[in-house]
Design goal:
It contains no helices and 12 strands. The protein is mainly beta and 158 residues long. It has a single domain, classed as Sandwich (Jelly Rolls), CATH 2.60.120. The protein is globular, with a radius of gyration of 16 Å.
Length: 158
């Protein structure tokens, strides 16, 4: 069986002390999707001097049961030469109600102006059931100055 790999990436400039979902993957009906990797970076838009006194960003990967007030977002396949289309869809950060949270599957922290990327072992991938939702939400423990930008990448396999 051939693999269909895809990803989505979103940048958000939101630095207040609230939990905020900024990307959500939705598996197609009757088809599972495996989250094979994820990454997050945080820093000042356009660079700037190091700010080692800033608190790290707390990130959760969790199951979610609703879309909240999120907006449609693009996914891309890794091999553009393949004729098939990705069936997985994505939603991005929106203002308003948060998606309904479910089980938290992973939690990690990222230092300000730092980044992390995790590639899951094949037997430890997060599997999203058909029609299921997986969200990536974050929170800054302390208020951040304007210009703070956070980027997340979610890589998946259909």
């Amino acid at each position: 069986m051939a693999r269909m790999l895809g990803s989505t990436r979103y940048y958000v400039g939101y630095g207040t002390q609230v939990l905020r979902t900024f990307l959500q993957l939705i598996a197609p009906a009757n088809q599972r999707v495996a989250l094979i990797g994820y990454g997050l970076g945080s820093g000042l838009a356009g660079g700037g001097p190091p700010m080692s006194t800033r608190s790290p960003v707390v990130v959760d990967l969790l199951r979610q049961t609703t879309a909240g007030s999120m907006s449609a977002w693009a996914v891309r396949k890794y091999d553009a030469s393949l004729a098939e289309n990705l069936q997985t869809t994505a939603l991005r950060y929106g203002v308003g109600p948060e998606p309904t949270p479910g089980d938290i599957l992973r939690t990690f922290t990222v230092n300000f102006q730092g980044s992390v990327f995790v590639r899951e072992a094949q037997d430890d991938e997060i599997v999203i059931g058909g029609g299921g939702r997986l969200g990536c939400r974050y929170m800054y423990p302390t208020a951040q100055p304007s210009g703070v930008q956070t980027a997340v990448t979610l890589e998946f396999e259909e």
